[in-house]
Structure formats: C-alpha cells, structure tokens
# Entry
Amino acid sequence: MNPIRVTVWNEYMHERTEPHIAAVYPDGIHGCIAAFLREAGYEVKTATQPEPEHGLTQEVLDNTDVLIWWGHMAHGDVDDAIVKRVYDRVMAGMGIIVLHSGHASKIMEKLMGTNSGELKWRENGDKEILWSVAPNHPIMRGVPEKVIIDHEEMYGEFFNVPDPDELVFVSWFEGGFVFRSGMCYKRGLGKLFYFRPGHESFPTYFQKEVQQIIINAVAWAAPQGILKIASGHTPDDAT
Amino acid sequence: MNPIRVTVWNEYMHERTEPHIAAVYPDGIHGCIAAFLREAGYEVKTATQPEPEHGLTQEVLDNTDVLIWWGHMAHGDVDDAIVKRVYDRVMAGMGIIVLHSGHASKIMEKLMGTNSGELKWRENGDKEILWSVAPNHPIMRGVPEKVIIDHEEMYGEFFNVPDPDELVFVSWFEGGFVFRSGMCYKRGLGKLFYFRPGHESFPTYFQKEVQQIIINAVAWAAPQGILKIASGHTPDDAT
Amino acid sequence: MNPIRVTVWNEYMHERTEPHIAAVYPDGIHGCIAAFLREAGYEVKTATQPEPEHGLTQEVLDNTDVLIWWGHMAHGDVDDAIVKRVYDRVMAGMGIIVLHSGHASKIMEKLMGTNSGELKWRENGDKEILWSVAPNHPIMRGVPEKVIIDHEEMYGEFFNVPDPDELVFVSWFEGGFVFRSGMCYKRGLGKLFYFRPGHESFPTYFQKEVQQIIINAVAWAAPQGILKIASGHTPDDAT
Amino acid sequence: MNPIRVTVWNEYMHERTEPHIAAVYPDGIHGCIAAFLREAGYEVKTATQPEPEHGLTQEVLDNTDVLIWWGHMAHGDVDDAIVKRVYDRVMAGMGIIVLHSGHASKIMEKLMGTNSGELKWRENGDKEILWSVAPNHPIMRGVPEKVIIDHEEMYGEFFNVPDPDELVFVSWFEGGFVFRSGMCYKRGLGKLFYFRPGHESFPTYFQKEVQQIIINAVAWAAPQGILKIASGHTPDDAT
# Structure
C-alpha cells in the first residue's frame, strides 16, 4: 500500500509577526506537525496561506489524501474559490482534520452547515484534560484515556456544530467549562475530524499524546472505500 | 400555548406554466399543503418565489416557527441573500421541512454541508413504499408502518447527505432502488426534516398518510428549548 | 389528550435505614419526585422495592406511560422476572427514565447491552456543572444552558454505555472529571433517558432546574407513535 | 503487526441433518467462511455448537480478535454461560460479526438490548439488492455500491434493534420489502457488525462481493484502541 499523502496547511500569520509565537513554533505550526507526521511514515507536504492560491493548487489537492487545517486570525482572507476547491475534494473522498481555531474557518462552516465559529473562549492558560469517551476508536491507538495539557486556551460549550457521528474526546477545563474536543464527521465521500487543542501560544503540538492523536486521525481520515458514485438520471431498472 | 406558525414556501413555477401540473395542484403545491396544515390547527401562511424577496421578508421569517420548502426547476434563481436569511433563522431555532426536489436547493446544501443534490432519479411513475424504521417517533403519530404511494418519481441511493440524527423512513421503489426518505437533522438551534415524496406531477400531497407525516413533522420541528446561547469571550469562571 | 401516567419507582432503602438520608428525603426520593411531577400535571403513582412484586405488577406497568427508576444499594435483589416485565413494557413503547445510580441496575444493563455499571466515582460532595450540548432539545424547555449543583457524588468517564442517540448534557466536576450526564436512547418501541444527578445524600431533586429536566424528560419519553408492529412470517408481497 | 485472529462459529445443524443444505455448504457454512478469510490473510479457526462448550472455551475466546456468529434453528440450546463468556470478551474489546439469522441469537439480543429477533421474513428466494449508504466506509473497500444476490431469504422492517452507530447497507427485496442489512455498533470496548445475507439454502457466502464485505468487516471490528479502562472508586483528583 502506498503511504498516505498528507498536506499540512497553516495560515502562518502569528509565527511570522509575533516573536513570542515564533519562539514557540520556530518552524511554524505546520513545520511542527509535518515533522511528527513524517516520522510516523506519512508522505507529507506543507502549504500556507501567503503562498499563491494559499499553496492549495488543484494539483496539490488532487495529490492529497488528508488535509490538515490550522487557521485563526485571517479566516476572512481565505479565497472562496480555494475553499470551494477543498470542499470539492472532501466530497470526492479526501479526509480533513480541522485543528483548534480552525473551527471558525470558512471550510469548517461550509462542511458543518452551522455557525461553527460560535463557542465560548478565554485565553487564560487554563489546564485542559481530554477524556476519551470512545476508548477503542482507531484514533485512540496508543493514546491514554486521559491526556492532560497544562496550559491551553479554553473553549466552552455550546459549540455550534451538528451532533458528531462519533464523539471521541470531552475536555475538562479549570474554571468550570467542558467541550466536545474530538469529533468525527462524514461529509460526501470524505471524513472530517475536528480536534480542539493547539493554541498558537502554547507548545501543544510538541506533546507526544497530542501528536499520536493526530497521527491516528490521519489514518482514520484517509480514503478507504468507494470514491466514485453514480448519480443523476438513471432510466434503467437496478435489477 | 400559541399555535405553531408555519410558512409554506413554494417555487411555484410548474403550476403556473404547465397545464397538466396545474391540473394536479390547482391551488399550487403550497395551497394544497397550507390547507391541510390549517385544518390541523396550525397558523399558516404561504410564500412563493415570484414574490418580492421570494415572499420571505425578515418579518415573515421572524414570525415563522416552521418553514416548509418546495422547489425544483429554479433553485439557481433563489437569491443568495434570502438563502442566508433562512439559514440565520434556522440557526436561531426555526424548524425547516425540505420536501422532495428541495434536496437540491441552496438552503438544503448549505445546511447539509454536502452536495445534497446528488442522487439517482427517474420519472417513470414507479410505485413507492415508505417503511418506517422509527415507529415510535413523534413523526409517526397516526401513521401506519407502511405507506404505499402508487406513482412517484424515483430517487435512489447514494444520496449525498450526512448521516441523519434519526432515520425515520426508508423507501422501496419498483425497479430495484431504495432511498432514505425521512431524515431528521439538528442544525444550530433549529431542526430539519427532509421528506422525499412529492413530485409535482403526482397528487402525493393529497394523500392522507403523507399529510399526516408533514403535520407531525411540523410539531417535531417547532422550537422547543433554549433559543439564546451565549458565545464569544467569556473571561469569568463558570463556577 | 389524557395526562401522561408516570410511575416513580424507588429502591427505598437508604431513606428507611439511614437517618441522615431520611433527613434529606423525608418522603423518600420517590415522594419528592412524585410531588413535583404531580404539580406539573402528570398522573403519578409510586412503587418501591420492598412492596410485593416491587410494586410493579403487570397491571401497574400496563397503566404506566413512563417509569422513573432510582436504585442503588440493592440492585442485585431486584427480581429478574420483574426486570423482564419492565423490559417487555419498554419494548412495547413505555418510556423509562433511569436516574443516577440506576446506571448499575439490572434493567439499565439489559437495555444498554453493556456493563453500564462501569464508571469512575467518588463521594466527596464535588461541585457539578451540567452544560447542555443540545439546547433546543425538548428536554431543555425552560432549562438554562448551565445548571450548577453545589454538591454531588462525582461520576467520571469512561461510562460503559453505547453512544447515545442524543447527548443532552455533559457534566464538569471539580477534581478534573467529566461525564455524559443526559443521554437519550431508543430501545424497541420505547425510549430511555439516563440522567446522572441525584445521590441520596444531597437534596438534588429539590432543585428547580433538575425538576424541570425530569418533567421535560417525561414528556419526551412518553409513547408517541406506532405501538404495534407486525413481525414474523410474512408470505404476501407488500405491494 | 500480527495477523488478526478470527474464530468462525457456526451452529452447524442444517448442514449435518439436511442433505440439500449439505449440498450447498459441503464443508459447513463455517468451512466456507473460514476458507475465504484465510485466503485474505487472517489467522482463522472454527468452532461449532455441537463441540464441548460449543467450541468457545475461555482460551479460544481469549485468543480471538474477531468472532463470526452464524446460528439459526438452535439459538435456544446455546448455553447461557457461553453467551456470557462471549459478551464479556466483547466488553473487553473483541469484535463480533453477527450474520443473517444470528439476529435472533442470545448474544445478539444481549448486546442490542432489544428483541432483535423481531422482523418480517419469508423464504421465497426473493432477489435482494444491497445498496451502500456509506460508500467510503472501511467495510466498502473494493465493494461496489450495489450488490445483487439472485436468491435469498427475505427480511423486512421493522427490525427491532437500536439505531446503528453507522448504517452501511440497505437492502431492496422484490415483493416490496426493505431492510437495514449492514449495521455497525459499539458495545463496551468491542464492535459489532450485523450483516443480513446468508440463508443456509443459498450459496450466498460463495459470492465474491459478500466475501469482500465480511473480509473488510473483520478488519473494521478488530481491536484498535484502548482495551483497559479504569473504573470504580477514584478518590484522587484527575488533575
């Protein structure tokens, strides 16, 4: 079997403009994620928002099995035509993993069918504990039932997304909030995993358990079954 | 309790331009549906695509608990701003019942997050049998487990929609096709019921069981719980 | 429409043998629950484990639309034949609301198909916060999105139950635990709502928001659709 | 990675007592299934009801990743202790694939929490068409969207099982019936796939597409994540 082809997409704004963020992610968030995915055996490329076509040409997407999406401060500047291109690839079977503040991106809202930007949040460095409510899910391979992240941005319910097909993680935050932090969706022939942690100011993507979850999510999201379905006028009997 | 306020929206093209359709629905599809919903005790208005703002002004929508949507040949002519207005009301708790060829409407695709226009179809007047797979659902009140419609347009899987929160009906068609014909979704604070039958050339909406299903779906889709949720920056502890 | 007929079933052991529990629930937990359900307009009876047939004769069950179940220390003493009788009624359409430690009861395990007694727990009087993740659900009518219970027994994930058909509440506990605290299931023609709060040593069922949730859950769980389904040998065509 | 260990369990009554069934499955249904699973690379054993402990000793089960279950005429004779042993292994993470008339087995009813024996049926050799409603599911790898089985026993809805976590196939039958024929469930740490086709009098398990579905289902059902979860008294904070 050929290795799964992953494209790690990053808005790549914070790291270029804010030294204290660059200090956390010197190679960019995409660089950090690409590195551990490569080590896991995937064929990995990166793409960023400042590149032409945001680095997501038709050719890049056509050769991507799973796209990872991190964005935050510049959602509004993402070109609608590129969003549509990503959406079309998901319909055709590409997996997509939307991370953290990507919840408010155009592609997330388009795939959810809701205002998924809506949730409660604060940047206090709260402690977060991820609890698995689906321990034998493929995304849990080698992951403990409880993952503690010492400091993170807090996200709290109500998170305006459809009920997931599978809920994998629920987060506890000091301060009294909870959040559905790992959620699986099918959309068209593609799959989407939303994973909450990963604020730019915390080294969350350097944490081993978090890396393992994303590594597993890639395998889960990769195309697995039928990727061409007939539709439209069908005059003949099916028998 | 005040009566539920329903707006029945119809594209209203076939009935005005094709005499053999007008013969089936002399008062328009909206007229037929409005009549049996009124008789069921709801407060019912109608709106059609040719009206200014397609009859869906902000005021009309603000006073609608459940919107019924029938469209077919002119989906592309529905104003995007009106689609957004309907979407916003669903986010805020309005129920919506999408009928038959409304599967390919802009509002359906926007709420599904998929190319829900994709399915197999043929207009052969096939016999359709609706089987309930959720017999004690509120939409089944007074409805038999099997509803035969003598002649209908056929829709066949794969229907490109997300897995429903609840599957209520599966249709059998002569010719060898099946279809998920009654599906419940939550979107934002609103609810959506997709119901398959109702091609313009067949008198489906005059059939008592079909009417009962739509009557029940209105009660199911009407707002029932919290309709205002705080989101955004939340600096204080929740405790 | 006739009022919904509710039977509130209580193990009724703690209150009779432990004065500090009797001080919290002088009329028994069933007495407290029956009182607020009656005030809400339901037709309410009570039944307890020490009664002959645990108070759940065939006649009582045949005249029950929704059964409420509270048990804790004597699950093992509940007669298997009575458990089967309750199960049969759920299959036939009766609703059942399983409260708190009822998670480990024979009827819960039988309806779940899992060892639903498995979860983490401690009796430290932790603060609990219930967050709604389904704000427009009928169980949320008049209930705020956040319900604080000052002191409760803690239950923590992993809770060994199937994924619910609908998840309504997620609880936060001081100490770092989370729990899926309000879950909807269909079983046979009946419906089940599991609701976590209600340890015998805390006055949880006197709290207004908790009462409103249970009042709403009764309406949700009551039979609503088809209650007789043909099965078995079916020689004739369905057409 | 070690190969997945499969135990194919068969009641093995029809083939030993009815010559016309033995003619269809000369090596027993288990023999047929074991052969194609072995060819797919799994480590396969068989076990049958007439063997001591029905061939399902604790040691056999402890060394089984996925159990396949075919039973029909002797469900009532399966020892409750063995059923409990299988159930315990599913709770601990073993996958189980229940085939055809296994829907009415003790283990299926125990894992469903419903009277899953209830459905409509007839033995007329009806044509069956399986349609996929989850084309990119791992169970669909190499399987076409439509699988025609020329002659099968008919099963019709309402099938008394909980809503599946994922619905993969819907069957069409000549005569007007439909059936949810491929359904995924999580139970405890284990997974269950119910697959409808496979009446003893038809050579269904010799059909390539049917074999591919079962081959894929084994991979899907095999343990993948956490297989040991702490539960019980948990006095310490989780932080």
